Structures are given as structure tokens and as C-alpha cells.
Amino acid sequence: MTTLRMRRAGAGIAGALVMGLALTGCAGDDLGGGSSGGGGDGGDADCADFEQYGTFEGDTVAISSTIEGVEGEQLAESWADFTNCTGINIEHNGTNEFESQIFVQVEGGNAPDLAIFPQPGLLARMAEGGHLAAATGDALEAAEANYSEDWLSYGNVDGTQYGVPIQGSAKSFVWYSPSVFEENGYEIPTTWDEMMELTDQISADHGSDSVKPWCYGIESGGATGWPATDFMEDAVLREAGPDVYDQWVNHEIPFDDPQIVASLERVGDIVQNEDYVNGGIGDARSAATTPWADAGFQVLEDNCFLFRAASFWEAQLPEGTEVGPDGDIFAFYLPADTADEKPLLIAGDYMAAFNDDEATQATLAYFASPEWANTRMSIGGMVSPNDGADPANASSDVLRLTIDLMQDEDALVRFDGSDMMPSEVGAGSFWSALTNWTDGQVDAEKALASVENSWP
Fold it and tell me: Which of 216, 221, 413, 454 could share a disulfide with 429, CB 3.0–4.6 Å?
């Protein structure tokens, strides 16, 4: 699994696959695991670009993460020139059991030098337990110079910066077919009300058992329910606003506060309306058993017109699908209540150090730099929230749109709420409650009350 959310979900449902990737400081050497070095073989690098990080005599820096497979190989490519020029060897262990393994490593006195955390909540637990070292010196300077306050805040614990955001995704997207919109004269909505008017128009123009305005699915194995939590979080940001969103995520107001119930009911106005959802699939309740990624394929089959999913859904599209404003499918920003508001739900990976060794902090500083961000983006498949990230280096139109939103100074960025909640809630009772709600077993108030009662 190769996305931020999918990697997280996979940790609970897939077997362990551990990939070791070791880079040597010698140009042209192979990476452990059979991959070759990035940026060519590292021999073409201008090492003057790396002098700021220092020169080391074969120091080794170990990195643990959830990143494996093809994405792990791409990650290893991104530091080839850095290791060649600095002499730092990087050993990477990517596993879908990261969340459990990192605690075993720390408790056993065998923590890595660096880790890439997909959840701010997990990073905060490590910091509060006294296991992480603060970003210092050049690493801290690079982080503060290259990231917005919103992005940095999710790696900051009690006023100390531990985590550096290295890659991200935007979740506030609706996917559609540009050609179908053009054929029908439909315009991209700029407000939530316009989106609902478009929904009604599509239903009036095309509504039938096999064609509906929206397609929707929340099945994801052991992580079933997370797409519903994402949609709800987007609604809370838009209707209740970012301050209430923060209070809700931090449990400063009840999980079933009336404002939060209203936001879930707003989502229900779409996904529980039989006239609106799952043409070609079934009734509204079918979403509970429809694989989340497969649901969106109905846009390509002309069975639906709108599918809410994050930027990383692009990786699930069938081979040969043309993605772009003139392609088979593209995405637009999920609109807010007014056109001048820009709430943006995001997810991301944060790198943090377990020690303040010079080589560790130098490596962290490199990952905080625009140079790393642009190198990694040019390899493909990801985007960075780094302010110095050049959209031209993104490998697709959707990723370029993602960067534009991330770098918009007017955007109100908020991290995926369930990723910041206690794991028994964010990856447990919240998923289960919204699955039961989607299946019609409980109403919005009862679903959220059950989560409130589960809060530790």
C-alpha cells in the first residue's frame, strides 16, 4: 500500500513486509534490497550543494517508517546524492507494522535514529514519553524557514519542535469526468450550496437506478469506515469552523456536540439519500460494503458524476487512465460554505529524531530542505508541503493542484482528525460508529454518542 492513509490502514490488516534499504557513500553502489541509487548513481551530484550538512566518515543513520515497496525504493533514491556527498550511510526499514514495532524498539533500547510518523498523535506520544530529541541547529532553522505554522504545529509538542513534515496529501477533493461535465454544461461548484444544486441538477437530468450524482464506499478491510470519517471531518471544518474542529479533535467539547452531529447529518444529506448515491452499485447502505477505491471507478463507467476522495486515490486508478483537466478524470476542491473560505483537510508524514547526534540532525536538516522536497517530487508519486517545493516537479496535475492548495496562504489547514485522536478512537470506535451509521443501524446522534462513550 502506497498512500499515507492506506499505509496506515494496512498496518492493521496486512502481514509484515520489512524492506531494508542501505545506501553507501560510494557512487554507483546498489541499495540494499536491489534498488539503485537516486539522482542517477550519485556520481553526477555537485557536492558543493551539500557542504552545509558537513562531511562524515561513514556515519550510519537508521530510519524507520511505514514506507515500503515501490514507494520505499523511491524514497531511497531521494537521498542518494546526499549520502554520496556527506558520507552518511542511511539504512531504511519500512514496515506496515511500524506503529507497534517502534514501541518495541524504543522500550528495548534499540530506537532508530530517525522515524517517519504518519500520525501526529503517535509522534506526540513518543515526545511526551521523553523518547524524541528536539530538532536543533540547522534542522530547526530549515523547518522554520520552509514550512507554514499550520504544518509545523502538528510536529510541535508543548512548544518544542520535534517533527518535520516531509510529505503530504490533500483530502478535500471531489473527482469528476471533465468531458462529461462539458457535455452536460456543468460548472465546477465554488460553494457547498452550489455543489448541492449541481447534485440536484444531475439527479434531475440523469437519475435512475443505474446512474446517480455520487458514488461512495467505505469498505477497507480492518480499517472499514475511515472514508466516512474523512468526509465528516471535511464537513466539520466547513460548517462548524476550524476552532470548533480543534476543540472536537482535542476532546475539549463532547464528540457528540450538537455542532458535530449537524456536520455528520450534512454528510448524510448526500450519502444517505437514495436519489444521490451509488448508481451501478446499490442502495445507500451498499456503501458500507463497497470498497472505497472501487466506488470511484463508477465515474469512469458513467454511473456517477462525483466522488469525494483524497489526492492519493489517483494511485488506485486503472493503468492507462488519463488524469487531468482534459483527461478521463480529474478533481476539484471540495467547496466551503463561501467561495472565499479555504478549509483544507490534509494528511502527512513527519520525520523526528530519537537523538541529537550530528549526523542524525544533518539528515533531518536535509529532509527539511527544498532540495530534498524537489528531488523526491521529481522521482514521482508524492508532494511536499515545503514552501520551496516547485509544483513543476510534481508528477501529475492532481499533485500540482495539491501543492497549490497546500501553499495557498489563505488556506485553513487542518490535519486528519482521526489521526490525532487516541488510537482506540481514531482507528477504532470512530470507524466502527460511522460504519454502523452508513449501514443504517444508528442515526448520527447515536453513532457519535457511542464514540463519546468510548473516549479513554
Answer: 454
Distance of alpha carbon 166 from the chain centroid: 11
Q: How far is CA 344 from the centre of its chain?
A: 12
pLDDT higher than threshold 80 for residue 15: no
**Residue 348 backbone dihedrals phi, psi, to 5 degrees:** -170, 165
Burial degree of 134 (CB within 10 A; 0-12, 13-18, 19+) = middle
Cell of 295: 466506488
Specify whether the CB–CB gap between 86 and 23 falls below 8 A: no
Spatial neighbors of 123 by CB under 8 A, at least 6 apart, are 117, 132, 155, 157, 162, 163, 350, 352
User: Each residue of 101-155: pLDDT tens digit?
Assistant: 999 999 999 999 999 999 898 999 999 999 999 999 999 999 999 999 989 999 9
- Give the CA distances from residue 436 to residues 223, 254, 287, 454, in Å, rounded to whole numbers and listed in that order: 13, 20, 11, 15
The answer to whether 451 touches 429, Cβ cutoff 8 Å, is yes
With CA atoms as reference, report the closest residue to 62 among 391, 353, 340.
353
Q: Which three cell numbers stand for residue 231?
A: 468526509
What is the crossing angle of helices 226-239 and 430-438, to 10°?
90
SS3 call for 129:
coil
Q: Is the distance from CB of 344 to CB of 238 less than 8 angstroms?
A: no
> Among all chains, which residue has been given the C-alpha cell 542511511?
90
Q: Quick check: helix, strand or coil at residue 117? A: strand
Confidence of residue 43 (pLDDT cuts 50, 70, 90): low
b/e code 283-302 from CB counts within 10 Å (16+ = b):
ebbbbbebbbbebbbbbbee
What pLDDT shows up at residue 407? 87
Instruction: Tell me the percentage of the chain whose pLDDT exceeds 70.
Output: 90
Question: Can you list the alpha helix ranges (DSSP code H) found in 333-429?
Answer: 358-367, 370-379, 397-406, 417-420, 423-424
Span 286-296, pLDDT tens digits:
999 999 999 99
Taking each helix axis from N to C terminus, what angle separates 444-454 and 430-438, rounded to the nearest 10 degrees? 160
Report pTM: 0.85
Q: Is the pLDDT of residue 340 over 60?
A: yes
- DSSP secondary structure string for all residues of 140-201: HHHHHHHS-HHHHHTTEETTEE--EEEEEEE--EEEE-HHHHHHHT----SSHHHHHHHHHH
